[in-house]
Design a protein that fits this description.
Diaminopimelate Epimerase, Chain A, domain 1; about 325 residues; binds manganese (II) ion; alpha/beta
């Protein structure tokens, strides 16, 4: 399948790389990494388009292109599981579509689709292709792809990290990636972002069984002078609390509440499904209609933990 995808890239006149909405480091890592690799090796007209990210601005700027570019291009989808998540809906106008991804519930959008769910990041797949096919990887590509690997693997800590992940990281370092500098940039937060993390620590709640959550209203965001993305990054302070296997950050957005839901054990995408959402077994998102629904949701999450403990205790 990789041969087929590379063949289509080599045959295309122009290429547009698209990731998912609300991009993370892996999404942008794939886009910038693959863009540089295509430019460097195949001398093609190539663009990376989608939504910008303020906290990842150090990774580079996405391209702005006209609708007419789509109708003469091949679209490469990277790190995006399903059609609803594709960051630029004009993808459907393209001459042809291919996809490289690592999500467990990836759909089959495209005429050639390569999905490897065993790896922690899609950037690792792109880097592996470059390594195996002896493609030139410049410094920008190496830094982009290593950023993707570091962010999606939680700094080589999550499931899917294997000996090959380190071989690929080593290959990227030899190509000029600088993990020390990258980690500094990844870890940097704005002053106000840290302040709102303080708010979350101060105001988080815990249910009887150990569901931990915090609500950030629009007013709170305004008070701390943070944009939605900065507020939503505060989710990570709620993880890793002893005996609290499910946590959530609930953010007011437009006329509803967006729930960012995480778990260290209980499968939670079924919980998210009940509230207009879904996602991975341990990382999901959903929506609540208003503040008064938070308590119902918390009780539901509490019940999930109770059932989980029951199953674990009877093993
Ligand atoms: Mn990813």
């Amino acid at each position: 399948m990789i041969d087929k995808i590379l063949g289509k890239i080599k045959a295309a006149n122009s290429i547009i790389i698209i990731g998912h909405v609300s991009p993370d480091g892996d999404c942008l890592g794939c886009q910038f990494g693959l863009k540089e690799i295509i430019k460097e090796n195949f001398k093609k007209e190539v663009y990376a388009v989608g939504e910008p990210s303020t906290s990842l601005a150090f990774m580079g700027c996405l391209d702005t292109i006209d609708d007419s570019v789509f109708t003469r291009s091949l679209v490469v989808l990277t790190d995006v599981a399903n059609e609803a998540r594709i960051a630029d809906k004009r993808y459907s106008k393209a001459l042809d579509i291919v996809k490289i991804d690592h999500h467990p519930y990836s759909d089959n959008t495209g005429s050639a689709v390569y999905v490897d769910t065993s790896v922690s990041s899609a950037s690792e797949i792109i880097a592996r292709i470059a390594m195996e096919y002896n493609l030139k990887v410049n410094e920008k590509a190496a830094n982009s792809l290593l950023t993707g690997i570091i962010t999606d693997s939680g700094g080589f800590r999550y499931d899917g990290v294997n000996p090959n992940t380190f071989k690929i990281a080593s290959f990227l370092m030899e190509a000029g990636a600088n993990p020390v500098e990258l980690n500094k940039k990844i870890a940097t937060v704005t002053f106000n972002e840290l302040k709102i993390k303080g708010f979350v620590i101060e105001n988080m709640k815990r249910t009887k069984e150990g569901f931990v959550y915090c609500y950030i209203s629009k007013e709170t965001r305004a008070k701390y002078n943070v944009i939605y993305e900065e507020a939503s990054n505060a989710l990570d302070v709620l993880g890793n609390i002893e005996d609290c296997p499910i946590w959530a950050l609930i953010l007011e957005i437009d006329n509803e509440l967006r729930v960012r839901l995480r778990s260290s054990g209980p499968v939670i995408n079924t919980l998210a499904n009940k509230y207009r959402g879904g996602g991975h077994p341990l990382a999901s998102g959903c929506y609540l209609n208003n503040e008064s629904e938070i308590e119902t949701f918390a009780n539901d999450a509490d019940e999930y933990i109770r059932n989980y403990k029951h199953i674990m205790n009877n093993r």
